Amino acid sequence: LHGHSLATAAALLAAEQPPARLQRMPPPPLAVRVAPAAHAAFVRQLRGQPYYLCSAVHATGVLLAHSADARARPLLSALLHGVFGDLGQPGDQQGLAELLARLCHLQLITLDALLPPGHAAAPPVAPGGTAAHFLQPASWLYELAKLYLRRLPAARRFAQLALTGAVEALAAEPSLRLSLADALPGGSTDTGAALPQRLAALRATCELFLAAVERHAAAVPRAVQRLAAAVWRGALGRGVAQPAALALVAQLLIGCWLAPALAAPHAYGICIDSAREAFPPSVARNLAAVALELTRLPSVMGSDAPREGAEEALAAAVGQWVEVVLL
Predict the structure, then answer these.
(1) Prediction pTM value
(2) Which long-range contacts (C-beta less than 8 Å, at least 24 apart) are formed by 235-240?
(3) Could you give the CA distance from residue 60 to residue 58 in angstroms, rounded to a whole number?
């Protein structure tokens, strides 16, 4: 472990490509079949010493890569399945949390622009491209953090506790339309006249979800609190101002946790009686619109650009919730 190349160690864990279908478990690495005892000892060492895994990730150059990159995807699968066992044990959960904290700190000191300018959310990383912002969607580290927060049992329970009621209230309004895309000029509506009303309804719905999350702030899992605190300390250590540091923590909690849970509720165990199998298309579009608007709020928090009254209120609500989580 100490005397060999860390890049070689990472390649050993990802010796075989994962299958195309994500619901299947990846085949065991070659080392498991050749020397299972040695491989098990090696994995135990890696699990208990996240410094080496962090160094291996840095050496492979996938920290800012697209999550589907030829180098990135096998390593993502190897970490989640091969090293941390799909978070099946408390030790696996703690080990991946420590690794994520180190990787977030590494990304904080690597990037030049941590948040996108203005009030727009960072666009997903293009295939073959690299991340330009902290935890940018579709980046390797974003996917690892999202998978961790989706598989962590306590994080799933919190999402179910805090969001199910608001999702049920939204599903009870099938005629409500929140998507802004078809309200823009040139969309499915004849003019953009519906945009102000649609935007007001969307922000009011975001307030509903943020109020639900705030009510259950004391139930945020300790593992998530520790990860958020690590991002907070890393941002302050880099010299980021406190409002921007809060925005970076919000990027983790909303962008990698709550917004994905709204965009795909069933993946987080969020079910309601009227939609046990799947949500109606209109409700799914509304949930996606709310998730998209929420992912924009960290950029609003970290920007010095003027804000509208409703936008300011939403950003303030997110900031208050993040502060409670940190405390």
Answers:
(1) 0.84
(2) 235/108, 235/114, 237/105, 238/108, 238/109, 240/114
(3) 6
